[in-house]
Amino acid sequence: MISFDRNIIFIHNQKCAGTSIEKSFFTREEYEFHYKNDKIFGKLYHSGISSYIEEYSFDLVKKCTIFSSTRNPWSRIISFIFWRAKFKGIEINNFTKDFFLSELYDPEQGMPLATLKSCIGNNISPELNTPKSNILKIENITNELSEFCERNNFSYQPVSTLNTSNHLDYQHYYDKETRDIIGDLFSDDIDFFNYDF
User: Fold this and answer.
1) How many CB atoms lie within 10 A of CB 185?
2) Strand 8-11's sheet: what is its strand order?
3) Could you tell me where the beta strands, DSSP code E, fall in the chain?
4) pLDDT(109) > 80
5) What integer pLDDT is reported at residue 38 of this predicted model?
6) φ, ψ for residue 110 (rounded to 5)?
7) Which three-class secondary structure state does DSSP give residue 141?
8) Angle of helix 18-25 versus helix 141-152 axis, rounded to 10
């Protein structure tokens, strides 16, 4: 989401509290403009910084304060699986290892959770030199968003919890093999943000 008036870009990483942050940080007019405009919604929803550069030009993007959010990948994957089931109207009664692995791989594209992208890969552009401190961990989102706003002289509004999925603590769903699979797939995020299981 972009605010042309305030020169701000928020990169909405899926299942990283993006909707909650957008609704607390952007004005109603900014929010409604983007979510009612099919062109913007279709092209840039869950898109990385490179898509904003392509859509608006490098010079415009370079003038903006860019920020985003990230999440522990093991937690993010479980949240995504349960959210997707809820979206499809499916109730998960038996979360087995086979079920986990079947949800993890897209049979057509052969990619892990094809719509989920690395937070670090989606947000960082070497040309723009986005500060690490502008990528907020949702595990501490209240403090990190407040500090981000204070550093950049933005007004702060508390974040409401939206689009949650109902499940046990993420660690409950892993064994060593599945834990290592996610660790390998999202090693860049884990290393960059110092996440551990």
Assistant:
1) 18
2) 2-3, 8-11, 65-70, 135-137
3) 2-3, 8-11, 65-70, 135-137
4) no
5) 47
6) 65, 25
7) helix
8) 40
pLDDT, one tens digit per residue, over 161-192 is: 666 677 899 999 999 999 998 998 889 889 98
**Strands, E, within 29-71: which ranges?**
65-70
Spatial distance between the Cα atoms of 195 and 197, rounded to a whole number of angstroms: 7
- Mean pLDDT value across residues 109-129: 64
Return all residues near 144 (Cβ < 8 A) that are at least 6 apart.
136, 137
Q: How far is CA 74 from CA 41, 78, 83, 98, 186, in A?
A: 28, 7, 14, 17, 9
Integer Cα distance of 70 and 145 in angstroms? 12
